[in-house]
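Entry 14. Structure prediction run on the chain below.
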Amino acid sequence: MELQGIVQNGVIVPDDASAWPEGMRVQISPVPVSNPPPHDPLPFGERFGKFKGSVPNLPVDLAQQHEHYRLGSPKR
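Output returned:
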């Protein structure tokens, strides 16, 4: 039987931990990843720039009065 998983914060997390009984001795070998995650993620503006202007009719003072619109507090 073979079980696969990933490493998260230095801990091996199996895909299905219930497959083996507690205390079972195992051997771990690394498996090459075919598509490694990108090392240089895109900047915020490039990732979310496509959404610019997608929500019409926002209040002009939304940035200054966000607590009023989000929480219902009085305007400043």
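Strands lie at 5-8, 11-14.
Filed with the rest of this week's runs.
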